[in-house]
């Protein structure tokens, strides 16, 4: 007999637990953008060179993206609550180190430590959320709230980073993590109860850890080098080749070892595979938009950092509405692909509006409606997509499956920033070359070329979102969740009580 939610008594503290889990995820997502705002001030104070300033961002991304699979496996091995608390306290300590940094090495080391502890924290948080909510409808509501908070964290980071940098100093963009982490850790310790069972106590797959970490680091770093050195540079090509070899070796090892770090069965189920691919691609498009709109608003429009953060609020409002009012309400009534496919297409429509971007474009007439469409589409699509993250997964693989979705999004974010930025830079250079002869105002030409570059790259983002929608509509075939299953599917879906909701954390 399939197991119904009624056979599991709900945790009386489940809504309190959601507060602390969402708070921890908000802290991790905030950190992705809050440091960007503070970077110019920190660079000047610490004497970091222009060539090395990218490492303040890259050190975090490399550690986080490279260690996520390992972090998910540790959560399965140690227990989710313990891993969650350790990750929070470690993240707080690393943040304190960054805020107190007196030189470049101390800053870069603290960022790498933040990424490493974030890789422990993120899969554990998602796994805890999933096992805490056992009722289908409550789970959808909880995941809607969680997804909206985490999805909006990037723009909140822009606002908070702007305020802290302008009115205090850049060090507070690190110190602000400490109270977040301490409150979340204390709440987790006293409120969260992890259900018995579900741990994977098999020995660690050390070769898998080494190969996956090095392969993902090489891939992320390869895209970072492509952005700065160009796609044809020897170092860029070498890193991509090394990544391909290492990841191929990782797949070969995982197919043979007794207790693999990433069991290939996690990847091969078509619904999970569709989620990994479609979300990873959608993040490529989304990260590129954040980058271009931030530069457009500050450089072309002359917005301050604080104003720029507030300018992103319509996208966040759309995400919250899409997640809690559309996705969460409909995900128990219609098949996931009928929310994901149209959701990505609505987001693509918002992107399509932004291809019309010009120097004199109106915020209210163009940017605001585009952001609303993008937020509504992404919020609606992310909810059912996240609920399928561990469709039909065995409880012992829950942590690593959550980590796999986070990994696809981290890699997607790195690819999106590098790929779309490189496309924009190439289009900008070509525009200047073709219009330089007749130009009378060089400053105006530079601004026109920059906006043309952004619009050209956004066309690629439209196409990427269309591909995401196509993947969702063709690969994902599970039915709507019923009263006997969590993620939809057939009668053998007992293990689906372990569904998790991975979200963007970079």
TrEMBL record:
Transmembrane segment boundaries: 17-39, 54-71, 83-101, 113-131, 143-164, 170-192, 204-224, 230-253, 274-297, 303-326, 338-357, 363-390, 411-433, 453-476
Intracellular or extracellular location(s): Cell membrane
Pfam families according to UniProt: MFS_1
Keyword Transmembrane helix: yes
Domain of life: Bacteria
Bilayer topology annotation: Multi-pass membrane protein
PROSITE patterns per record: MFS, SUGAR_TRANSPORT_1
Cross-referenced CDD domains: MFS_MMR_MDR_like (cd17321)
Record keywords, A-Z: Antibiotic resistance, Cell membrane, Membrane, Transmembrane, Transmembrane helix, Transport
SUPFAM superfamilies recorded: MFS general substrate transporter
Primary localisation category: membrane
The UniProt record lists the keyword Transmembrane helix: yes
Domain Major facilitator superfamily (MFS) profile: 17-480
Protein name, UniProt field: MFS transporter
Species: Streptomyces flavidovirens
């Amino acid at each position: 007999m399939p197991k119904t939610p009624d056979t599991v008594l709900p945790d009386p503290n489940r809504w309190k637990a959601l507060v602390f889990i969402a708070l921890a995820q908000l802290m991790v997502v905030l950190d992705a953008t809050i440091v960007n705002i503070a970077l110019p001030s920190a660079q000047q104070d610490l004497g970091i060179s222009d060539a090395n300033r990218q490492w303040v961002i890259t050190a975090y991304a490399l550690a986080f993206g490279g260690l996520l699979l390992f972090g998910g496996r540790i959560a399965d091995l140690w227990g989710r609550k313990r891993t969650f608390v350790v990750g929070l306290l470690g993240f707080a300590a690393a943040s304190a180190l960054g805020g107190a940094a007196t030189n470049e090495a101390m800053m870069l080391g603290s960022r790498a430590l933040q990424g490493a502890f974030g890789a422990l924290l993120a899969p554990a948080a998602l796994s805890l959320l999933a096992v805490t909510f056992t009722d289908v409808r409550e789970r959808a509501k909880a995941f809607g709230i969680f997804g909206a908070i985490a999805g909006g964290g990037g723009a909140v980071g822009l606002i908070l980073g702007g305020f802290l940098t302008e009115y205090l100093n850049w060090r507070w963009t690190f110190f602000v993590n400490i109270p977040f982490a301490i409150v979340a850790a204390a709440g987790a310790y006293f409120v969260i109860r992890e259900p018995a069972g579900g741990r994977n106590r098999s020995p660690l797959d050390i070769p898998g850890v080494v190969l996956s970490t090095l392969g993902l680091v090489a891939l992320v770093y390869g895209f970072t080098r492509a952005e700065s050195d160009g796609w044809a540079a020897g170092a860029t090509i070498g890193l991509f080749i090394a990544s391909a070899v290492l990841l191929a070796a990782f797949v070969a090892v995982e197919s043979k070892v007794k207790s693999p770090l990433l069991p290939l069965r996690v990847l091969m189920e078509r619904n999970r595979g569709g989620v990994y691919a479609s979300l990873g691609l959608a993040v490529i498009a989304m990260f590129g938009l954040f980058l271009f709109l931030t530069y457009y608003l500050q450089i072309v429009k002359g917005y301050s950092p604080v104003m720029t953060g507030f300018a992103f609020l319509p996208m966040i409002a759309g995400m919250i509405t899409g997640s809690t009012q559309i996705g969460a309400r409909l995900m128990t009534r219609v098949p996931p692909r009928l929310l994901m496919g149209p959701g990505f297409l609505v987001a693509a429509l918002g992107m399509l509006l932004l291809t019309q971007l010009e120097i004199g474009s109106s915020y209210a007439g163009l940017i605001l409606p585009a952001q609303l469409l993008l937020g509504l589409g992404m919020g609606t699509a992310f909810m059912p997509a996240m609920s399928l993250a561990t469709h039909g997964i065995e409880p012992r693989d829950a942590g690593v499956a959550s980590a796999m979705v986070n990994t696809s999004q981290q890699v997607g974010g790195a690819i999106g920033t590098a790929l779309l930025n490189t496309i924009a830079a190439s289009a900008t250079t070509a525009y200047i070359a073709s219009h330089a002869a007749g130009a009378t105002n060089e400053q105006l030409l530079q601004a026109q070329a920059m906006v043309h570059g952004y619009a050209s790259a956004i066309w690629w983002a439209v196409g990427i979102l269309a591909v995401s929608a196509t993947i969702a509509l063709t690969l994902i075939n599970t039915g709507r969740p019923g009263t006997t299953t969590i993620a939809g599917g057939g009668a053998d879906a007992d293990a689906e009580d372990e569904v998790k909701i991975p979200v963007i954390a970079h």
